[in-house]
Amino acid sequence: MSILSSLRRAGPVVALAALIVGCGAPESNGSAESSSNPAGSAEDDVAADRRVVMFLGTSLTDGYGLEREQAYPALIQQKIDSAGLPFEVVNAGLSGERSAGALQRVRGWLLKQPFDVLVIETGANDMLNGLPVAELRSNIQGIIDTVRAAKPNTRIVLVGMLAAPNLGRTYVDRFNRVYPDLAEENDVPLVPFLLEGVATERDLNIADAIHPNAQGHHILARTVWKALEPVLRDAGTGQRGV
Fold it and tell me: Of the residues 31, 59, 95, 99, which is catalytic?
């Protein structure tokens, strides 16, 4: 059974939780990281001989409900170290952020940070708030264009999301095409669905039934690693994106 089919079967439960999260107060993962600088002090912390993988994302990347070291970017750092690759992960996830905010952050201060690979995870909060699909597409394209103009050697990986089925077939179909279409148009690797194997699985999510728990983040890390590992192996020998 496909994940989308599973989402349709679990629609009412997912929809209720989604509306609560999407329309409620800004989320916070409760970690010691400051949301005003979610990427941390990359320039100070990253060793000079290691390249940077920046994860731009929402609460799913931030690790909502968990400590930062339990979120999938930190778990990917473990995979990087085990593989002996010269990369340092920087988690620039920001809970509650929509794609327009991600674009503003990139245009504002994120471009001033050193990074060689950018993993883009955005759009879940847009979907939960019913943002027109054309705006989401435009914002993600804006992120890609902005990064490529300022850092042409930077590698980009796009992380996909699926829409909650209660939003209507037309919206769902249009939303679900955004990520594969953008990946193809911009020739970037795609993670088809970040929550593959985790969405609607009660044992893999925290009490809100939306955000993965620690075990769920291990699955997210494996899902993202499939697309990211080849990029890192290739980028480790190419020109830097800083």
Answer: 59
Question: Using an 8 Å Cβ cutoff, are 90 and 39 in contact?
Answer: yes
Give the pLDDT of residue 239: 61
Tens of pLDDT, residue by residue over 84-138, are 999 999 999 999 999 999 999 999 999 999 999 999 999 999 999 999 999 999 9
Structure tokens, 237: 């020998």
Which of 62, 95, 126, 211 is the catalytic position? 211
- Pick the catalytic residue: 6, 28, 208, 218? 208
Which of 50, 239, 47, 93 lies closest to 155, judged by CA? 239
Residue 238: pLDDT above 80?
no
Helices (H), the chain: 3-9, 11-23, 42-45, 59-62, 72-83, 99-108, 124-128, 133-150, 169-186, 214-235
69 secondary structure, DSSP code: G
Give the model's confidence band at 37: pLDDT under 50 very low, under 70 low, under 90 confident, else very high. Answer: very low
Active site residue 218: no
Nearest-CA neighbor of 216 among 198, 242, 240, 192?
198
The question of whether 59 is a catalytic residue gets the answer yes
Per the annotation, the verdict on 211 as an active-site residue is yes
pLDDT (tens digit per residue) in 152-164: 999 999 999 999 9
CA distance 18 to 124: 10
